[in-house]
Design brief:
Strand content: 5-15%
Mean pLDDT: 85
Number of helices: 5
Largest sheet: 3 strands, antiparallel
Organism: Trichoderma longibrachiatum ATCC 18648
Radius of gyration: 23 Å
Number of strands: 3
Protein name: CsbD-like domain-containing protein
Structural class: mainly alpha
Family: Belongs to the UPF0337 (CsbD) family.
Helix content: over 70%
Length: 185
């Protein structure tokens, strides 16, 4: 079996190709086990390890103020509700703290309400980004495949950009949702 690269033709990490490469490695390893061919076993193991590394890379995203950069190098701006919600949480927490320190129950309550409103706004923005990200990824993948089938290079590139933008939006929302889940435990 040849040593195929596990990334897409433009060398971007791909979740799908990591799954395919992992399955290929598992099959190659199993064939090696059945035939007693240690070379095939080792090659299969290497393929599976490369697939794991590519999967990890395809999941990578870095949160920046106002957006996300993914492993594809694409920047996606956050939904405005995420930014506004984060700001309202910060201001609300400050009001709540100040109200608690000064004994001003009205300010404390106002801060608590603003903080909760901010949490809801941020969650709404995260869900929008996640949903739009999934939609853009799917549309980009299908469109790219169809454009490739008819040899429309420009169309294929446009759809690949849409896919990458969607992936970045989705990963950015996932990063924030994961952080919030960890903070709540």
């Amino acid at each position: 079996m040849s040593d195929n690269t596990t990334t897409t033709n433009n060398n971007k990490p791909s979740t799908l190709s990591s799954y395919l490469e992992s399955a290929t490695g598992a099959v190659q390893n199993a064939v090696g086990n059945l035939t007693g061919n240690t070379s095939h076993q080792a090659e299969g193991e290497v393929r599976k390890q490369k697939a794991e590394a590519e999967y990890d890379a395809s999941q990578a995203a870095a949160k920046l103020p106002g957006g996300t950069v993914s492993s594809t190098g694409t920047f996606a701006k956050d939904d405005p509700n995420r930014t506004t919600g984060s700001w309202n949480q910060t201001v609300g927490a400050a009001k709540e703290t100040l109200g608690g320190l000064t004994g001003n129950e009205s300010l404390k309550q106002s801060g608590r309400e603003q903080n909760l409103e901010g949490q809801q706004q941020e969650a709404k923005g995260q869900l929008r980004d996640y949903g739009h990200g999934l939609s853009d990824r799917a549309q980009g993948a299908v469109g790219s495949a169809l454009a490739g089938a008819v040899r429309d290079k420009e169309g294929q590139e446009r759809y690949e950009e849409l896919h990458d933008q969607g992936k970045t939006k989705q990963r950015g929302a996932e990063v924030d949702i994961q952080k919030q889940a960890e903070a709540n435990y």
